Every structure is written in structure tokens, then in C-alpha cells.
Amino acid sequence: MIALFVFILLGIAYAQTEPYALGADISWIQQRENSTVKYYHEGVQQDPFDILKEHGFNYIRLRLFVDPKATIPNESESPYSTAGYCGTDSTIKMAKRVKAAGMKFLLDFHYSDTWADPAKQYKPMSWQNLTTVAQLAAKVHSYTKETLEKFRDNDVLPDMVQVGNEVVSGMIWPEGRNYSSGGKGSWADFATLVNAGIDGVKDVDANIKIMVHTINERNPNGWLTNLRNNGVSRIDVFGLSYYTQWHGEPDSLQRVAAAFAANNNNGDIKIAVAEYSGNHRLINDIIFNLPNNKGFGTFVWEPADWSDGTYGATLFDWKSGTNNGRHSNELLELYPQMATDYGTTNSSSSSSSSELSSSSSASITSILNSPLSTLNSQLPAYYNLKGHSLGRKKPTEPGLYIEKKGKNTRRIIVF
Questions:
Q1: Same structural domain for residues 158 and 277?
Q2: Residue 91 and residue 231: Cα distance in Å, rounded?
Q3: Per-residue pLDDT tens for 43-99?
Q4: Angle of CA points 234, 240, 244, to nearest 5°
Q5: pTM above 0.85, yes or no
Q6: Which of 67, 76, 381, 414 is least surrounded by Cβ atoms within 10 Å, i.e. has the fewest?
Q7: Whole domain around residue 358: which residue ranges?
């Protein structure tokens, strides 16, 4: 007999050991402000940290490069910043603003001089003479420890550290790949470097949480199993990047998250979407409503700057004229309702309950498509996320679905 567990995505509050993370990566903010970009909410210029805080955000993620001024041969995105943005000094300045805003802080170590992602994991230029895993492990440990000591000296220690960025194929190539290439790389070598980073974190403060970060494809749950089987056990949060154009429709995220929750129901490790753009409410509903409090939270990626076109949009629009700059838009207004529904509401929210309900309803209507609202049957009908009818029999295949009964529409997860 198939056990069917349906979790209704209506913002039901579960007991949390700590508040659900409504987070954002806003590492570009400092660079934009220094090039005279201003940020506005309802036509009034404000600090972007305050705007986000007032809309329910409670966690900020900042990326960190070893030397963003360094030039990597034959790399178009190098140097990342001749001014040193996203280096240690500039990130400490940003961290002070995170703390001043009363939000939690996730520090994302790329262990590279520029973007580390599935396509590239460049060894820092100043580490080029380190050619063995043992040498690199010692450097990862000392660099992580010494960097965090600088943050501690400025009273801005992170609440959580991400050891590597999108390290689906390992980190610090070629030695730290998680597969063999040219006689270098293995899961054991990759795990050695991850553990070295964790050691560096714990040497400074044992209470700092640890996130490991991959992507929502290439069997992420199998990736986590391999990492743990190779000796990486001190993990608090399993982070995923999820972008629709690269990682599939939201039901693919739901399947991965549901499998994670099922496979890890006896441990303390939780799951987070460490990067996303678009489908703001839906992605958060998927993570928040996982069983056994397995959802840690989400971090929307560069919401004042970056859009993935068809699949997502920024939370701030560029407007020219008298108040030239980035202005908050209707998508940002989804977050106060999420904060309320997930039990993370702060009293400084600027939106009324009626406005929040309206925003949430508008979002759901947009996602579900208006033709569904005309159905009047007393028996529920079921649809996939693209609006295709699945008939009146409740789905049994794990996934995310739309249930419509009369004028009432809701989204359900089947585990």
C-alpha cells in the first residue's frame, strides 16, 4: 500500500528550533552604491538593508573571494574587481551593515579569486605553488581560520559559513575535483578540502553553522551521500542552487527536497535553497513545508540586480528621472506575507495585513493561471504546475500539484 502524505501549502506554522530563513544574497549592493545607485521604497530613498528587513528578510548572504583584484589567465571574469569588492575588507564592511540591521549573516567562501561555479573552480593565483591535496588542505584551513579571525576582531562573525560555492564537481581544481582527471581529483580529495575548511571555521567559533552547497541537478542527494561517506560529517545545512532555466520546473526542486527530507529524517541537517530567482512564494513554500522541520530557508540571489529573464525578475526595478535608481516592486511585497505565514514576522514591516493578503493572492493567481478559477465542480480536480489537467483522482506520484475545488485553489505536495 502506498503511503500518501499531503502537505498543504498554506503557510501552516510548524515549531522551529530557529526562525525560518528568509534570506538574500546582496553582495553587489556596496559596489552599486559606490557608483551612485540609490534604493527606494514607495518613492522614498532608504538603505536597502532596511528595505529588506522591513519586508521580512532576516538573513543575508555575502560572497567572499581570496583576491578579487587578481588576474586569472584566459578568464573573462577576471579580475573580478580592481577595487577589491567581495574581498575580505569590503565584505567586513558589508557584514557590519548586516549586523546593524539585526539580521543573521551567511558568509560564502568561494576559495577562488573570482566566481566559483559548476563550470569553473579556479585555484587562487596566490596558491598556484600548492600542488598537493595536503598543501591545499593546510592552506584552506589557515585561510579560513585567519579570515574569520578578522571578522571576529570586527565583531561581525557569521552565523553560518558556506564551505565552497556550487561545488557539484569539487573545489580548487584540479586537485580538489571529486572525480579523477589527469591523475588528480577524487571524492576523498574533495572531502579533505571541505573538512579543512570546516576545521578552520570551528577553530574560531564552534557554534558557527556549516553549509555545503551544490546544485539542483546531477543527483544532489547522491552528492551529499558521497560527501558524507568520505568523512564530511559536520554539516548543518545542505544548500542548493535552483534556477528554473538550468534546473527544471519547481517540481524538480520539490522531488529533491522531499527525497532529502525522507533520507535525513533522523538527523539534524536541514536543507536550504542557497540561490534562486523567480517563483518566490512557491520555492519558499516547498522548503518551509517539508516534514520534520527539514526546511532551513532560502536566499534569493542579488534581488536588486539580477533577473533570469523568462523565469524570474528582480525585487527592485530600475527607474530613471527625478528619483533615479532601484525602486522596490510588487514582487518584494510577497515577502511580508511569507514572513507572517512562516512565523518570522518582525514588527517593522511596512505593509498592512490587507495589502499582504492581496499581494499573496495576486502571486497565487499568477502561478496557477486564471482559467482554473472558473471551475465549479464539488469534486476536486488536479493539475500539474503547467496547468495541465490530471483528472479528479488525487495524484500518488511524489510531486507538487494544484488542487481545485469550486472557487478554492490550493497547492499540495505529495511525498
A1: yes
A2: 31
A3: 999 999 999 999 999 999 999 999 999 999 999 999 999 999 999 999 999 999 999
A4: 175
A5: no
A6: 76
A7: 17-366
